[in-house]
Amino acid sequence: xxxxxxxxxxxxxxxxxxxxxxxxxxxxxxxxxxxxxxxxxxxxxxxxxxxxxxxxxxxxxxxxxxxxxxxxxxxxxxxxxxxxxxxxxxxxxxxxxxxxxxxxxxxxxxxxxxxxxxxxxxxxxxxxxxxxxxxxxxxxxxxxxxxxxxxxxxxxxxxxxxxxxxxxxxxxxxxxxxxxxxxxxxxxxxxxxxxxxxxxxxxxxxxxxxxxxxxxxxxxxxxxxxxxxxxxxxxxxxxxxxxxxxxxxxxxxxxxxxxxxxxxxxxxxxxxxxxxxxxxxxxxxxxxxxxxxxxxxxxxxxxxxxxxxxxxxxxxxxxxxxxxxxxxxxxxxxxxxxxxxxxxxxxxxxxxxx
Amino acid sequence: xxxxxxxxxxxxxxxxxxxxxxxxxxxxxxxxxxxxxxxxxxxxxxxxxxxxxxxxxxxxxxxxxxxxxxxxxxxxxxxxxxxxxxxxxxxxxxxxxxxxxxxxxxxxxxxxxxxxxxxxxxxxxxxxxxxxxxxxxxxxxxxxxxxxxxxxxxxxxxxxxxxxxxxxxxxxxxxxxxxxxxxxxxxxxxxxxxxxxxxxxxxxxxxxxxxxxxxxxxxxxxxxxxxxxxxxxxxxxxxxxxxxxxxxxxxxxxxxxxxxxxxxxxxxxxxxxxxxxxxxxxxxxxxxxxxxxxxxxxxxxxxxxxxxxxxxxxxxxxxxxxxxxxxxxxxxxxxxxxxxxxxxxxxxxxxxxxxxxxxxxxxxxxxxxxxxxxxxxxxxxxxxxxxxxxxxxxxxxxxxxxxxxxxxxxxxxxxxxxxxxxxxxxxxxxxxxxxxxxxxxxxxxxxxxxxxxxxxxxxxxxxxxxxxxxxx
Lengths: 354, 472
Ligand SMILES: C[S@@+](CC[C@H](N)C(=O)[O-])C[C@H]1O[C@@H](n2cnc3c(N)ncnc32)[C@H](O)[C@@H]1O
Known about the structure:
The complex is a heterodimer.
Chain A: H1 2-12, E1 19-23, E2 28-32, E3 38-41, E4 54-57, H2 58-74, H3 80-94, H4 102-108, E5 113-116, H5 120-132, H6 137-141, E6 143-146, E7 149-152, H7 165-173, E8 180-185, H8 191-199, E9 204-210, H9 213-225, E10 232-236, E11 250-255, H10 270-273, H11 289-301, E12 302-311, H12 315-326, E13 333-340, E14 346-353
Parallel strand pairs in A: 8-9, 8-11, 9-10, 11-12
Antiparallel strand pairs in A: 1-2, 2-3, 4-5, 6-7, 12-14, 13-14
Helix pairs in contact in A: 2-3, 2-4, 2-5, 7-8
Chain B: H1 2-16, H2 23-33, H3 42-71, H4 89-94, H5 107-124, H6 127-142, H7 150-189, H8 193-218, E1 227-234, H9 238-258, E2 262-270, E3 276-284, H10 288-292, E4 297-304, E5 313-325, E6 340-344, E7 362-366, E8 371-375, H11 381-404, E9 423-428, E10 434-437, E11 443-444, H12 447-451, H13 456-471
Parallel strand pairs in B: 4-9
Antiparallel strand pairs in B: 1-3, 1-5, 2-3, 4-5, 6-7, 7-8, 9-10, 10-11
The structure holds S-adenosylmethionine.
Domain Peptide chain release factor (chain B): 185-295
InterPro entries (chain B): PCRF (IPR005139), Pep_chain_release_fac_I (IPR000352), Pep_chain_release_fac_I_sf (IPR045853), PrfB (IPR004374)
Protein name (chain B): Peptide chain release factor 2
């Protein structure tokens, strides 16, 4: 099954032309590529890509683990057992041992040396931030596992959601989706664009557009990490503006635009409201501001028969958009479908331009 | 050169026993018998034989081919291998020659050791059953319409090939033993001590190889070489028994790691206070299923419960099931996508951009059978789904195997089929300390080392007793 191969991904990174070097004296880790070096500061470099330049012992890690566990259970976090799973992932990323076997060794071989990617005391700081400030784990470790990808993320970029993985399946199911020009509007970390880029054949291409400068930088890192520079082109700008040269030529447009109604922003889960960028979340008064703009706009960029797939705030929004496509834009779209996510919420609207 | 000679001569000698020697044999005889091999210097053998080696070799292989076409058609018809004096492997065992250490020079001791090993290997392979199965398969394979169902045909042919290979291997060992005995006698008559020593060292090698085969034969079931899932479920009794379930699970995790397998937690339902309600781990590596299947059943613990403030003695139970991960794709149960319902395991709330969670557990339900699989330990939903899907696939394969009764019935039981009365092992921490297997009566007085994963002795004991008992 594909499953094994996906697990192996972890071991094969970094991928293709991507190299990274570390110059600690300047406090920078650099992502070097043949054409243009991208650099990000040490604090935002993904943990799993940092060199194993520190070390500690199995018993120290066991002590850390016990402390971290008790912090999780004494916090007011709604799901402590899940926090413990995150703790395992933090330790996986901070060491080179995907099985965290050093935790068992703590008792039998207390002075077993474990190489680390951060100083042990830094781990305490990171976990405190996770539990007490409710900082998302993905920002702490600097990556998010999404589909079979490990995407670099950092503050200022939306952490891709599990629901959104399905968008890629929709594209996969379309006949001929491996060729032609595609656009991922509001690409954020580049998640959808990279996943589509990986499926494309020789003559396929994805334009990954975002208004946020940080998103553009992070998307570029991810495109490069997967060796997709000739398949995915990241463009800076608002929605269709950077696509003037390809108007009427696109095979498909996908987007997960900001869709949360403005009034819901203050009440969001702490990890989201306090830590993720507003620009990626706020969908205007009714949450439909960007979505309606995208529906309208995709009619001009898509070629005839072109595909669209949008993620929405759920149920009513999906129904409303699907309804408008039959009324306001009647005769311009066909095969409009509302599709539920795995939680049963009608999350997506897909279809084709006439 | 010497071993070529030994093979050639013994083959020649055996061929002389054939009641109707044909032209090939006569030519073989003439080539091999012209220079009499009598000198005791191996190099002079070599010098004298080299020019003829090519021709002789060609003749021998032609002769072999002829034999295999003419005489080796059916498995069960297979007559027992005999040497020139009409002695079989069983006859050698019956002589009860003393088995000495490997470095002893008495050839009889080596022959006896080899013969005993061959018998044990056959027993463990369930030789008689295997021959019957082989006959059934040969019949099925020879049917003209077999390829009407290519999936079935593929499975049958593969199994046929596999069993054929196993049978030939053992027969090969038997033949080699008998050939070497013949050769030894010949060498002694000819006073050729070089060949005699050479034969003894060959016997020692065969003896060593067979020792390995004895172990391998314990794991010669159809699915034994595959990886597997191990599932543990806590019995009634609340926290104490959930704690026991997690102790058992840890035992398997460290057993797997000790054996060099890759162990991953796929699914885990933690208890409210401690332990687990149930959990599934994946044990990746060769023969994981072959070993782990010995653990299927109910495991019982007796101890003073740390969860009982009155410090009373408690008895708890955990059920263990093991599912093979079939490597052979064509024999797997075919799942229709439309028969599946995929759900987020712990959903709730608005989801999407509203929620940041690393929890992407999914549950997959196979609607026609009601069988489900859950995975929550992967870091992406996509991978949780893939992982749950492979558990589901294996559960359905297992169901299918049970349906076709292809596998020993007790190894196909899923967790829900295991009755709590079926206790296989008892772990007593108080008032005395002992772990005892109810099936074999094998016992160990240090439960802590067992709980740390030292269970190979139990497994091997069970496998050998059950296989050897079965065949008798
Ligand atoms: C909900 S996030 C989606 C990110 C990514 N596609 C994903 O699914 O993880 C929405 C993205 O739209 C971008 N965005 C917001 N307004 C935009 C605009 N006017 N033009 C282009 N992108 C915009 C945000 O910066 C953000 O990256």
